[in-house]
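EI: anyone free to look at a 262-residue chain?
SC: sure, send it
EI:
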Amino acid sequence: MIAPERAPHATGPGPAPAPVAGRGPAGPGAPDVPVIGILGGMGPAATADFYTKLVDATPASRDQEHRRVVIWSDPTVPDRTESLQGRGPDPLPWLRAGAEKLQEAGATHIAIPCNTAHAFVPALLQYVDVPVVHMIDEVARSLAGAAPPVRCAGLLATDGTVGTGLYQDWLHRRGVEVIVPDARDQRAVMTAILSIKAGRRGAAETAALAAVADRLARAGAEAVVAGCTEIPLCLATTDVTVPLLDPARILARAMVALTAPI
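SC: here you go
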C-alpha cells in the first residue's frame, strides 16, 4: 500500500512558503489568505477532474472552509508532446500568459495538472513570482515515502513525458527505478490517451491501459504511475494488480497541505 504523501515541495524563487495564517473569516481579497491557481486546459476534462480532487482533498465541513481557487483553463495551449518531439510550436508563451493571469488574479501558489507540461516548468519559472508546486516531484516523494518505500515503478504516460525522461530523472533522485513500456505498448498507451482526450472512455481504453500496467508489474514494477492526467479518467486502482498512483490526486493533496491556514 502506498503511504500518505510527505509534505509538499514548491518550486520557485526562494524557499517554499509556509502555510499562511488567517485572521478568522476573511473578507473579499483578504491578503493573508492563500489562493491556489490552476494552470489548466491540458486537457479540459483533466482540469475539471483535478479541481474535483482538490475539493475532495480539503478537510471541510462547509463551503467557507474550502480553499480559494482561480482556474485558468486554456485548451489552445499547443500540444506538449508534439512540441517536445519538434513537430509543433512551443507552448511556453501560452503557459506564461496563463501563469501571469493567475498571478494577476491573486494566486499565491500554482498547480499544473498536466504531466508533460512540467517539461516546460524550468523555463516558466523565469516569468512567475509565486511557487509552482511540482507534480512529478510530489509523486517521487510519495513513492520514496511509502512504507515500505517503492523502489521500482512502472510509468504510463505520453510519448513526450516518457521521451524527455521527466519521471525517470525525478524518481531516480529519490532512489526509485522507472520501468517504461516497450515500443508496442507505448503506442497502445498513446492511442488510449488520445482516445480519452477525444471523449472516448470505454472498456477498450481501460483494457488497453490495464494490459500495459499488468506487463509493467510483471516486469518488476511495485507500483504504476498514471503519468498523464487523462489516464485516471479511464483507469481505476481496481483495474491494476499493483498500486496505481494518480499524480493529480497527489498534487491536490499537496496544494491543500501547502495552503492550510494555521
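EI: Strands lie at 10-11, 35-40, 68-73, 109-111, 132-133, 152-156, 177-179, 223-226, 244-245.
SC: 👍
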